[in-house]
Amino acid sequence: MPRNYLTGAAERAALLACCCGWLECDVPSAGTTDVLVLGGGGRTIHPKPIPRKMRFAPSGGDRKEVVMAVKQGDLALLEHPVARELLASKIPARLAYVWTDGTPRVTPIWFHWDGRELVLGTPPNAPKVKALAGNPKVAVTIDDNHFPHKVLLIRGTACLQTVEGVAPEYAQAAERYFGPEQGRAWVEQLRGMSPKMVRIAITPEWVGVLDFETRLPSALAG
């Protein structure tokens, strides 16, 4: 990391962080004034003690002032290291939606993240298609089984589109979950089982991240 990126306590914290996208780190706050430089060649002296929760951008971009940590609900959390890890994982998503009688439903399902939408695929006669056509508001969680748990929470709106054959994003998901060879074999088998598929594209409108270390559920965060 270049010396003019972050210096002092902030740099030490940054070196412990994963350098991708907007990152969050803990830095000391008691009586410190550090030099904070993001992306530019100049220096910005923070006039007050540095907040404990901060985010920063990688070098090479426009100079930006360090700001407080991203709050739950902010779409910028899609670039948080926990979110990026889970979106690239082989963990099935849990899709929550409302059935036609108003009662809740949740189902595990493969997903593909294209950088803008969470894309799912399902047969046209799947019960959730009827429910989502009437009420497209959904919630999704992707979470691991190892403590401290990592959790990605998404709320958004689903857009349904019937496509011929298999949705390309479903085929990509199959290769991620099964591996390239077995994934392609499953997609070919699926083509013979159903001539069409419903592509479910979820646009995030609210995003939350938990890691049970620096980001806790609101009831525990005080």
Description:
With 222 residues, the chain is an alpha+beta fold. It has two domains: 9-69, no CATH class; 83-215, Roll (Pnp Oxidase, Chain A). The protein contains six helices and twelve strands. The chain has helices at residues 9-16, 81-87, 127-134, 168-178, 180-193, 218-221; strands spanning 23-26, 35-36, 44-45, 53-56, 67-68, 93-98, 104-109, 112-113, 118-122, 137-143, 151-164, 196-210. The protein is globular, with a radius of gyration of 21 Å. The two termini are 34 Å apart.
Question: What are its keywords?
Answer:
222 residues, alpha+beta, Pnp Oxidase, Chain A, 2 domains, seven-stranded antiparallel β-sheet, three-stranded antiparallel β-sheet, 12 strands, 23% helix, disordered N terminus
Mean pLDDT: 78
The CATH topology of the largest domain comes to Pnp Oxidase, Chain A
Shape: globular
Q: Beta-sheet strand percentage?
A: 25-35%
Secondary structure tally: strands: 12
Q: What's the alpha carbon Rg, rounded to whole Å?
A: 21 Å
**Which class of the largest domain in CATH terms?**
Mainly Beta
Please state the second-level CATH architecture of the largest domain: Roll
Largest beta sheet, briefly? 7 strands, antiparallel
- Number of domain modules: 2
